[in-house]
Amino acid sequence: GENVEQHPSTLSVQEGDSAVIKCTYSDSASNYFPWYKQELGKRPQLIIDIRSNVGEKKDQRIAVTLNKTAKHFSLHITETQPEDSAVYFCAATSPGVGNTPLVFGKGTRLSVIA
Amino acid sequence: NAGVTQTPKFRVLKTGQSMTLLCAQDMNHEYMYWYRQDPGMGLRLIHYSVGEGTTAKGEVPDGYNVSRLKKQNFLLGLESAAPSQTSVYFCASSPIFSTDTQYFGPGTRLTVL
């Protein structure tokens, strides 16, 4: 089955700097890669996703890139703000016949220092 | 719309006791999921359902049972709780299986003594 590795497990950045979180996946058939943000004591919420027919997707200060050949994808947050402090989870799935549920990485705790 | 709701929010059990966690969604979603979240372990899928009356095992199903008698409800049962089941449990639902936004409930914090 699919296996998703996420790095780093913790990340501290100064306010205004950029943050990058990387994930690798094992199943070359996977073609949907979402990112979820979980603030302290809250539920996970989708912030951005990418499908395998796209190499990059942006939404204001966040972007996700996908390298299908290397089987890895990354979340980029620019001009970080204190409200970006949270745990971020990547995930992957392989849809289609016999499609599989989402498999999540173990999460990255991002701290933005003011 | 309330979205996805879970009851109870907190619960403390003694080893060997049983309980049921209730998840309800009002978005008419076909697919529902139960996850557990442990420190440093991310979100691990316990069981899921692809429609009313159906259930399937996820990554960590042992010690849990589920039922989906109504489309809007997904129940997670612990027949004989163990300390290893101390965790935060999240329910989620989605309109499309896996390749679309999953909407999570607020979570249930369960402690087994």
What integer is the average pLDDT of chain B? 95
How would you describe the shape of chain A?
globular
Question: Are there runs of chain B of 5+ residues with pLDDT below 50, and where?
Answer: none
Structural class computed from helices and strand pairing of chain B: mainly beta
Task: Pick out the low-confidence regions of chain A.
Answer: none
- Rg of chain B, rounded, reads 13 Å
The percent of residues in helical segments of chain A reads under 10%
Beta content of chain B comes to over 45%
Helix content of chain B: under 10%
Largest sheet of chain B: 7 strands, mixed
Describe the main β-sheet of chain A briefly.
Answer: 6 strands, mixed
Query: What kind of oligomer do you see?
Result: heterodimer
Topology summary:
The complex is a heterodimer of chains A (114) and B (113).
Chain A (H helix, E strand, L loop, with lengths): L3 E4 L2 E5 L4 E7 L6 E7 L6 E7 L4 E4 L2 E6 L4 E6 L8 E7 L10 E2 L3 E6 L1
Parallel strand pairs in A: 2-11
Antiparallel strand pairs in A: 1-3, 3-8, 4-5, 4-9, 6-7, 7-8, 9-10, 9-11
Chain B lengths: L3 E4 L2 E4 L5 E7 L5 E8 L3 E8 L6 E2 L7 E3 L5 E6 L8 E8 L8 E2 L3 E5 L1
Parallel strand pairs in B: 2-11
Antiparallel strand pairs in B: 1-3, 3-8, 4-5, 4-9, 5-6, 7-8, 9-10, 9-11
